[in-house]
Amino acid sequence: MGLLDGLYRFQNCRTLRVSSYDRSGGNADYIQIKAGETAVLADLLNTGIIKHIWITINAKDPMYNRNLILRMYWDGELEPSVQSPIGDFFGQGWGENYLFASLPMAAAPAGGRGLNCYFPMPFTQGAKITLENDSELDVPSFYYYIDYEEHASIPDDAGRFHAWWNREITEPSCEQENEWGLMGEPPKNQSDAGNYLFAEIKGRGHFVGVNYYVDSPGPMWYGEGDDMFMVDGEPWPGSLHGTGTEDFFNSSWCPNELYTHPYFGYARVPDKLGFMGRTHCYRFLLEDAIHFRKSLRSSIEHGHANVLTLDIASVAYWYQSEPHKAFPAIPQRSLRQNMPAITASDVHRWRDAWRNSKGSGKLWGNELD
């Protein structure tokens, strides 16, 4: 069935919206969220499907995209099915704002501050969406729409929408960051135990996408890491074993260019030496979801055989049956902040240390002995 097939058919439902419109009839169409406060954006008590969410934010905190925490609850559950900093959820990494376009999610003008999500989110016994202002500063104006359909019932086989943010500063699996075999024979990896984790899921469902944010402190290509999906508790190498990070994100040959496709792309790339700096890759498995009946462990290597130090954050998206495995508590604010940017001065200090290790003298920088 095509994307527009069925658009002409009548639907037996009612279209509704929760928004931040000014109840007085004025033009103050926003809510305010004080520092430390959790705002309830929607508390729906019926049966239906959320079809679209739009948000834009005026905030004093320059890191508001990392310090505002979005949570969603279905059918009266006590543990959230969605837990993520709001920026990362909508495709805005590192607390930044930039343009991002895909089929299910987008960050639109001005400058990526128009946040949109089109993932359908069904529920039968209510839905609750909250936003925690985990910041020292108030949010003066928060604008939003939550568009949904009210139904008499939804199919019994409708999974619930889930999304989980993770972040890790990785470390090499061996003493050297031996990528591309530059330091000798490259290591081998016959396990997913040391990989960066996208999600570890219990229950029946299907995995439908990931936003992947990687900050590389060095100029080496960060993406030799293979993606691995272990379905229903199977051992390594699993049913779905990839060949490299750019391959999983549907590109090739160590890309470093902006590219936008409805299902995959590179929304942000660095402009420093090599691959040093921040890259945002995304892939939505809308035609090729990964199905599981009991469990799924989804992960990716950080460099081949996990040899690189990287700052990786991600939001994984999937549908599953309830109850779901409870997420860990979101890391405290200080552990969600960016690593310092590597500068030209840092690179020059590395060069000085290297020169000293070689005894100084007339050295260009590519000497091996």
Automatic annotation (TrEMBL):
Pfam families, per the entry: DUF2961
Domain of life: Bacteria
Family annotation (Gene3D superfamilies): 2.60.120.1390
Name of the protein in its database record: DUF2961 domain-containing protein
